[in-house]
Structures are given as structure tokens and as C-alpha cells.
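Just scan my protein:

. . .
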Amino acid sequence: AESLSTIADPVLRKDIQSAISRFASIFGGVSERVIKIADFQVLPSDFHGALAVQYEGGKSQNYIRGIYLNKDFWTDKKTVNRRIKEWYDMGWFVRTSNPTRHIVMHELAHAKWSRLKSSRSARNARKEVTKLYRQWRRKERPGWGDYAKKNVDEFFAEGLSKHALGSGDRYTRRLVKILKENNL
């Protein structure tokens, strides 16, 4: 994996950093400062078309935690935005004001969710988010993409992205309230 500084497009680099800062200012500290560019061709074929992944795993001294952006797509802002807008048009993702920041925030939200799943003090928040997800699945969801329907993890990640980028609704506001009520 390579540093973000290897991205030739300074506008794209700045957008990624801006997404990290925005996420941290709204949802608190971000432990996932390890955001790198990686070659997804070395991963199983399921990941080759992915824009980014949040990963946590490995054995003790080889433990890896981070967010990896696919080197094939994260070359310049125009390429990234074109790809994400294709997915917006298919109804896959929540439409947001900034596609590049959306993906970075989505992965940061996955990192936050991972901590909710592993922390004993966050069990209550996890139960509340799961309950909210079930309520959301039963209702009409204008402004949400199909990806959020996949599972509670994706609902959480898409919801925080949607809220942070200015298109929040009652579900995203409730997600944020759950985080605040549980000091997360």
C-alpha cells in the first residue's frame, strides 16, 4: 500500500483530507488515519471493482487496520466522480453533494461501526442502530440508495455519509443522536 501523497491530482488529495476532517468534526475522533492507496488486483476478484475497503484483521504482530482506496480508480477527481455518479444513476448509493468525500466518509463510518461491534460500552448503541435499521427497511426511503438495504453495516455507513454531506433525514439524525447519547 502507498501513501495518499502518491495521488498525482492535488484536488483529489485535498478532497480526501477534507472528508477525513469533516467526518472527525461531526462524529468525533477518527482512529482510521491509515488511509492508503492499494492495488486491488492482488485481492480476490470480488474486490477488483471496489472503490475502497475498510479492513481490520491479522494475527497479533501482523495486525492491520486501515482504509484502502483502489489504485485503479483513485487517480484523479474526474475519474472517481464519474465512477461514483454511475452508481448514483443506478440507484446504488445515497446521492450526496460530493461523491469523492462520500466514499471516504462511508469507509470511515465502517471503521466507526467496527468499533461499535467490538466495544462492550457500545452494545446499547449497536442494538439501537439495528432497531433503527429494521424500522427503516419497513418504510419508504426516499433519497437512499439500494446499497444501504444490504445490511445494518451498510445502512450505518451510508447514513453517516448522507448526514455529513448535507442530505440528512430523520434516520440520519437518529443515527447521530444514538452516537451522541452513547458518547461514541
Remarks:
- The chain has a mean pLDDT of 85.
- Residues 4-181 form one domain.
- The beta strands are 35-38, 52-57, 64-70.
